[in-house]
Amino acid sequence: MKFKAKLSSKIVVFIIILSVLIVSFMILLNQSNKIVKNRFDQFGAERWMNNDSLFNYAQISCFFTSETGFSENNIYSLSRSYDEKMMSESISSSEGGRLWLHAYSAKGSVSVDASSNIATDVTAVAGDFFFIHNVPLITGSYFKDDPLNNDHILINETLAWQLFGSFDIVGRDIYIYDKPYSISGVTKNDGDLINDSLPHLYMQYDVYKVLDNLAYISCYEAILPNPISDYALNVVTSLFSFNELEYEIIQNTSRFNLINTFKNLINLTERNIKTNRVIYPQWENQARITEHKLAYLLLAQIILIFLFICTLTIMIIIYRSKISLFFENNSSKIVTKAKNSKLADKIRNKRRERYEKKKLS
Description:
With 361 residues, the protein is α+β, with helices and mostly antiparallel strands. 48% of the residues lie in helices and 19% in strands. Strand 2 and strand 3 form a beta hairpin. The model is unreliable at 1-7 (pLDDT under 50).
């Protein structure tokens, strides 16, 4: 009796350990999924596929230094090249709609409100920037990239509070270098695109480059058809002939999947070594932090799987005689129950019916 009690307690310990390992693994897996879902800006291709699902899409991001000289002329050339490439390879939208989209942005600063001269960070945007980047809004809406209606801006809650002491300010004007701009919305400070504590605003790129003649496009993003692996990436890469130290191209789509996360885990040391002069925008820095977090979470999951297999193996070795005895004693019972089950009866009846039909024919 004492032996049986001790044996039972040991089995309970093994079951508890295995259960803890499984629960820990599921917690880490859930945490990984939660982290990935928060990276809204990395899944533009998946959202765009809802409009046309004939083939896959991929999101490509390009980052530049001021030395690259990447300009709107390059963007016009890219647009023409995309259209020509798609036409030559007979890639078309099922409903005749837009086949691809793109966005570009620049970083800078301005002085807001002549009386207080509030130094404010600027993200100058164009194209479908707000489709890719889900800038969280408190009030109002995004402005459109429209040269005929270019006096609309978004300001963050820090700047709104400093200027008006309120967030209910949609439609009111603020002055940048004595020129009025209409507020189309107020953004939350808890987004990944900006430093939470600093005043910040969004305006159209064409408007900002007039205010700052040193402004340059530091980020270009495109969502393109990707009928085969790396097709979109190769299309964009083939159209660039800049100094490799002055730009970087990244495929955002699938960057957080298991295979890429495992590659990042293997190459964590190399990824920390920078080989170009590019300064990434805040959203790319956040994406890279996410990659590192996922890599470490994957490492923890691998360790848990290893511990689970080791624990299970030890349990089987210790109780192998009991396990084999259990199967010997119960295998005949299991076979008998299977033979007498309703499913087995149905199978036998169907076989009998087929046999009788053949016999009659």
